[in-house]
Amino acid sequence: MSDQQQFDVVVIGGGPAGYHAAIRAAQLGLKTACVDAALGKDGKPALGGTCLRVGCIPSKALLDSSRQFWNMGHIFGEHGIGFDKPSIDVKKMVARKDGIVKQFTGGIAALFKANKVAAFYGYGQLQPGNIVRVKQHDGSEVELHGTNVIIAAGSDSIELPFAKFGEHIVDNVGALDFDKVPKRLGVIGAGVIGLELGSVWNRLGAQVTVLEGLPNFLAAADAEVAKVAAREFKKQGLDIRLGCKVSNTEVKKDGVHVFYTDDKGEQEIVVDKLLVSVGRRAATKGLLADGTGVQLDPRGFVVVDDHCHTGVDGIWAIGDCVRGPMLAHKGFEEGIAVAELIAGLPGHVNYDTIPWVIYTEPEIAWVGKTEEQLKAEGIPYKSGSFPFAAVGRAVAMAEPIGFVKVLAHADTDRILGMHLVGPNVSELVHEGVLSMEFKGSADDLARICHAHPSLSEAVHDAAMAVHKRAIHKAN
Ligand code: FAD
Questions:
Q1: Is the pTM of this model over 0.85?
Q2: Taken in order 287, 290, 292, 293, is the CA torsion positive or negative?
Q3: What is the rounded distance in angstroms from the CA atom of residue 233 to the CA atom of residue 199?
């Protein structure tokens, strides 16, 4: 028989959403427990979820390693730097990535300790009556009763029925751990994960073919941003094919055969590794015992209201397992907001100012509405854009690609969106986030002093361009 322990808050899942909720709840004086089932590559419990183990952080580690390698072959020469042929030790690169993962997953455990969050390592199932039954990795069982329970179970890769994961067909987990550069890499899905991991291996020398089902490239992004990105990816050798419906795969001696149809008919490619990145699904299978009252939608997401409440007394859900963008920072904010709501504070998430970033080369980022959305919604707007080619710092860095675009309401001048493609735009997008959060106008942004020379001058001039007064280009 399992013993029962009492908490103010029990969090199921120690990923970005869950660990933020747990730490904030503990900061607010609530007795908090967090249950997480994940194990690291060393077989030991590893907090931090998809993001720290097999998502955001390890992908950025490999993106950075591969970028250094690419720059040696393609950019260093411009600076007058010469060297013998660059080489890549993939095992060392992956080991560096693993070291970073270990450092950060261990960091969450240390933060739990410092904040007195009780960690339970094992699989938690919600029972009726706010009880979480945990099957711990050592085989024992424990029951945790929470006045509040926060479900933060996250997401898993979607597996296609005709492309089962294994040695040759992989998801993000496998594609972060190749032991050598595949000669030919196929990618199904030109979304964020497909483009980022496709870029990693392309930069290291793989011949990468990306098959995307939709007819438009990066349909969620601003159309001009997507156009620049597509052009640059093509230059880098990424072969992105649109409107491709993949129907089957076969693993044979000479590689993985991928069968698809496009507007020209039936096609086949043969690759050494195939990355399937067609989206992620909520990890809610087996999470709820009968009778909890918590509802799942037809796709398995936990149904919640605008405040992440499930409608069952004291039960909340956050992060990838609920509606909204599957982004770590969206989960962070939901975790903090729910902990604050539980403590009687006015927790809140502004879903209209969540930034999106794709860490390719060039980087892609945006916040707010695209021109296409504004047109569809009949919102009158003005647009100002500015190219990095006219920014001294970008040219000095030998990265004069892309632009910043600011969209503002035609009548009120309030900023409605910012769209960026180019160097370091993962950082620059936050000027848009901050401006929108403070309900700023394009004129506000245009009148804020930006350091010279800096990449942020592209944001400044784009805001000035909204009123046709950009200094460094013809308006
Ligand atoms: P998760 O991170 O999935 O964490 C859920 C945790 O709960 C896991 O540890 C899981 O083991 C545990 N769990 C689940 N069910 C139970 C249970 N019943 N009992 C106990 N434990 C359980 N997002 C970004 O914002 N920026 C990026 O650059 C970015 N890059 C990415 C790159 C890749 C390759 C991938 C795959 C994802 C990336 N993401 C990125 C998405 C990001 O990782 C997710 O949005 C984020 O991790 C979601 O956080 P979460 O806490 O909701 O869920």
A1: yes
A2: positive
A3: 8
- The tens digit of pLDDT for each residue in 128-176 reads 999 999 999 999 999 999 999 999 999 999 999 999 999 999 999 999 9
Give the pLDDT band (50/70/90) at residue 1. very low
Nearest CA to ligand 1 atom 28: 56
Question: How many CB atoms lie under 10 A from the CB of residue 44?
Answer: 13
| Angle 400-187-284 from CA coordinates, rounded to 5° | 110
163 lines ligand 1 (CB under 6 A): no
For CA atoms 228, 229, 230, 235, give the dihedral sign.
positive
The alpha carbon of 327 and the centre of ligand 1 are apart by a number of angstroms equal to: 8
d(CA 216, CA 395): 30
CA 422, 428, 434, 440 torsion: positive or negative? negative
16 ligand 1 Cβ < 6 A? yes
pLDDT greater than 90 at residue 408: yes
Please enumerate in sequence order all residues whose Cβ is within 8 A of that of 4, keeping only pairs 6 or more positions apart, or say none: 131, 142, 143, 144, 145
Split at pLDDT 50, 70, 90, the class of 2 is low
User: From the CB of 124, is ligand 1 less than 6 Å away?
Assistant: yes
Residue with tokens 């990838």: 320
Q: How far apart are CA 172 and CA 460, in angstroms?
A: 37
Question: How confident is the model at residue 475, as a pLDDT?
Answer: 86
Q: Which of 10, 41, 47, 50 to mutate to test the pocket of ligand 1 (most atoms within 8 A of CB)?
A: 50
CA of 108 to the centre of ligand 1 (A): 14
- Where do we find the tokens 């006219």? 390
Give the pLDDT band (50/70/90) at residue 451.
very high
Round to whole Å and give the CA distance between 367 and 375.
16
DSSP 8-class letter at 221: S
Kindly state if the Cβ of 59 falls inside 6 Å of ligand 1. Answer: yes
Q: Give the mean pLDDT of 37-43.
A: 97
Residue 452 among the catalytic residues? yes
Is 50 touching ligand 1 by the criterion CB < 6 Å? yes
Largest separation between any pair of C-alpha atoms in the chain: 76
